[in-house]
Design a protein that fits this description.
Layout lengths: L3 E7 L1 H6 L2 E7 L6 E8 L5 E8 L2 E7 L4 E4 L17 E10 L5 E10 L23 H4 L9 E6 L13 H10 L4 E4 L11 H8 L2 E10 L2 E6 L11 H10 L3 E4 L22 E6 L9 H9 L4 E5 L15 E6 L3 H9 L3 E4 L6 E5 L2 E5 L5 E4 L2 E4 L4 E5 L5 E4 L5 E5 L1
Parallel strand pairs: 9-10, 10-11, 13-14, 14-15
Antiparallel strand pairs: 1-8, 2-7, 3-6, 3-8, 4-5, 4-7, 9-16, 11-12, 12-13, 16-17, 17-24, 18-19, 19-22, 20-21, 20-23, 23-24
Helix pairs in contact: 3-4
GO molecular function: 5'-3' DNA exonuclease activity; 5'-3' RNA exonuclease activity
InterPro entries: PHP_dom, PHP_domain, Pol/His_phosphatase_N, Pol/histidinol_Pase-like
Pfam family, one: PHP
Length: 409
């Protein structure tokens, strides 16, 4: 079949007018699959890549890929397989970095009469499952409360479905190896990974929470839950309303982290999520108070969580650094309920000093000599397992150098 060709030249004015554009095309009636290839000068700028079908979202890979294939039975990670639909399709292009002189691009849309074979990278084999491990609460001697138990996990990680290097199953095994009870898989602007979560969770013996990192130039947010696709092209108030209506939870991610800090206009109090990824791997100097200050300015009663934002091993921050602790059930629904209830704490790692709000008490573990700080609390911890009457508001454990070691909502 003859390839369709589209060319153009994006300008800074184009980006200002709308950062995500659709280039339309129609497939021949007998096409059973198609491949899209994008070419431009990557040394000059960055274009993100995605796909919108006549009936809606079909995938997104951002700047991580320059081509994708959709077939009835398989698709490039980040994209949804299925029969090609009749009607007008769009190649989505995100104008992420456009130089002053503009950025020319070329698209080739290649229809296929029969679906291509699955490429070798998508047939990558599984590694052996990790050996069985005790739950984190058992390892650390944490009591249950009201039929719920403390779970250790990570609420921010990526796979090959966006810009990560591991498959869903490989990431699940790595998180289990780290001693985590749960992991949220939050690939950028796509939900194509959700179909793989149940099998990977069973294989690695870990709870996997469906997620999507809603990713824009002005900030990122995680949508937790099996919610379907959240349209990142809409304003944040629309995301928040959709997440709430579909029974999920939304967090504001790494709000003071470099060029992906939160810069969207302030959300109204009716849709503003109290859940904030206060502790992100990029908080390299934890005596720096900006993440705490931003969180407290965002809402009077924050629900603080953490995320490693794991992408690949060579970056040096594995899943669970930091670790989010949730008092809840060990299913995705139970984990979401724990976040909604504000039953969260964050530690530097699964085995790090820990501060839990456990009913009417604070339970403080492995924090001998650290300082407990809160709105009206100043106290030195003496001992490796301490129970204290809980006080209202966010609290933290610090070293004498003011380095944060644990947080408690």
């Amino acid at each position: 079949m003859r390839a369709l060709r589209r060319t153009g030249h994006w300008t800074v004015a184009d980006r200002a007018a709308g950062p995500v554009r659709g280039v339309p095309f129609e497939l021949p009636a007998d096409a059973r699959a198609f491949t899209v290839r994008l070419a431009y000068d990557r040394s000059a700028g960055v274009l993100d890549l995605g796909c919108l079908g006549p009936r809606g979202f079909r995938g997104w890979s951002g700047g991580a890929r320059s081509e994708y294939t959709l077939t009835p039975g398989w698709a490039t990670p980040g994209y949804l397989p299925g029969e090609p639909e009749p009607g007008v399709w769009h190649v989505l292009l995100g104008l992420y970095r456009i130089p002053p002189e503009g950025l020319p691009y070329r698209l080739r849309i290649i229809p296929h009469l029969s679906p291509p074979a699955v490429p070798p990278p998508l047939r990558r084999g599984l590694r052996p499952p990790p050996p069985p491990r005790e739950p984190a609460a058992t390892r650390r001697g944490l009591p249950s409360l009201g039929g719920l138990r403390w779970l250790a996990g990570d609420l921010h990680a990526h796979t090959v479905h966006s810009d990560g290097s591991l498959t869903v199953a490989e990431l699940a095994c790595l998180a289990a190896d780290r001693g985590l009870d749960f992991l949220a898989v939050t690939d950028h602007n796509t939900v194509s990974h959700h179909a793989e979560l149940p099998a990977a969770a069973a294989y690695a013996a870990i709870s996997l929470l469906p997620g999507q990192e809603i990713t824009t130039d002005l900030g990122h947010a995680n949508a937790f839950g099996d919610l379907g696709w959240i349209d990142f092209r809409e304003p944040p108030g629309v995301w928040a309303a959709a997440v709430r209506e579909r029974g999920g939870v939304m967090s504001i991610n790494h709000p003071v982290a470099a060029d992906c800090a939160w810069r969207h206009p302030t959300l109204g109090t009716d849709v503003r999520s109290p859940v904030v990824e206060t502790w992100h791997w990029s908080w390299l100097d934890r005596s720096w108070g900006a993440p705490l200050a931003w969180t407290q300015a965002w809402t009077a009663a924050p629900i603080m969580i953490g995320g490693s934002d794991y992408h690949r091993p060579e970056e040096g921050h594995p899943p669970g650094e930091p670790t989010t602790w949730i008092l809840g059930g060990d299913t995705p629904g139970g984990i979401l309920d724990g976040i909604r209830a504000g039953a969260t704490s964050v530690s530097a790692a699964p085995g790090g000093p820990l501060l839990l709000r456990h009913g009417d008490d604070f339970l403080v573990l492995d924090a001998d000599g650290l300082l407990l700080w809160g709105p009206d609390t100043r106290r030195v911890i003496v001992g490796d397992r301490v129970v204290l009457p809980a006080r209202p508001g966010p609290h933290r454990l610090e070293t004498f150098r003011n380095e944060v070691m644990a947080l408690c909502s």
